[in-house]
Amino acid sequence: MRLRLSQDARPQAMTLLVATAISVVLSFIPYASLLTYPFRIFVTFIHEGGHALAALVTGNSVASLAVETSGEGLTQATTGGLFSQMFV
Fold it and tell me: What does R_g of the chain's alpha carbons equal in angstroms?
């Protein structure tokens, strides 16, 4: 059985492959983390923002959203029911 991509999915698959190759190459370059640091912080912010948005959509309130200089993040929200916790 051969897997084939539809014509519409090929540009996205190519973008994913290029991004993966760039990530692998950058991991071998000394001090490349200095160049990628702003992107890491931005991605963490977007990720934590997704948690905050999910909390708001499920009827909770967001107490805080923090992004650390290490690239780690934390979103604190009120805890709702089981569905809300799983969704957030």
Answer: 18
